[in-house]
Every structure is written in C-alpha cells, then in structure tokens.
Amino acid sequence: MTYPSTSIATALHEQLESQYAQHIARLTTLTCRPRKGAEDEAAIAAARHAIAETARALQRMADGSYGRCERCKLPVPDAQLRHRPTARACLRCRLAPASLPRLCTATTAAPSRSGR
Ligand SMILES: [Zn+2]
C-alpha cells in the first residue's frame, strides 16, 4: 500500500520539490554574501538542515517508505503530512521520549484507508 493516500501524494511531492528549491536559493543567498556573524552562521545551518530534511523526504517518496512512521511503522496521518511534509514519525512517537516503549507497534494492524 502506498502512503500517503494517492490523492495528496502528488501535492506533497510538488510541495517538497518547491520547498527544496526555496531552501537551496536561501542557502545560496546566505553563502554568496559576506557573513556577519553568528546569526548568519545559524541561518546557514538552518538552511542546510532544511535541505537535508527535504531531500530525505523526497528520497523516502522515491523508495516507497514516505508516510510511514520510522519508529512504529504505521502510516503518518495525511493531516500531519499536509502540515509538515518532511515528518518522519507519527505524532504519538514524536511526542514520546525515545527511552519509553513505543506507544504503537508495527504488529498493530494498519487502519484501512479505503473509503477516503
Ligand atoms: Zn509512530
């Protein structure tokens, strides 16, 4: 099964491609001018992080793992992906400390997405 639902997959892909281009342009702008200190360095680091996160999301789309929580392996809800297309974990896992047992498990049957 493909996640997220195909109805939003195309829109999310376009959004990620657009974000990627914007982050690259921002990094180019930041690195092609004289740096003014720690604030510029922080902005450059943030742009690089955003590029990496977006690239990883696009890679997950290419390899078919996009939209699945990296911790519990259940689908990340479409609404969460619309809000944050680079999301790698469902909200329950994101909010749970890594030291605690997973709130949901891969052995739990994935909710049916039919009828959406
Ligand atoms: Zn999860």
From TrEMBL:
dksA C4-type zinc-finger residues: 69-93
InterPro entries in alphabetical order: Znf_DskA_TraR
Domain Zinc finger DksA/TraR C4-type residues, every copy: 64-93
Presence of keyword Nucleotide-binding: no
Keywords: Metal-binding, Zinc, Zinc-finger
The protein's name in its UniProt record: Zinc finger DksA/TraR C4-type domain-containing protein
Organism: Dactylosporangium salmoneum
Gene3D superfamilies in the record: DksA, coiled-coil domain
Ligase listed as a keyword: no
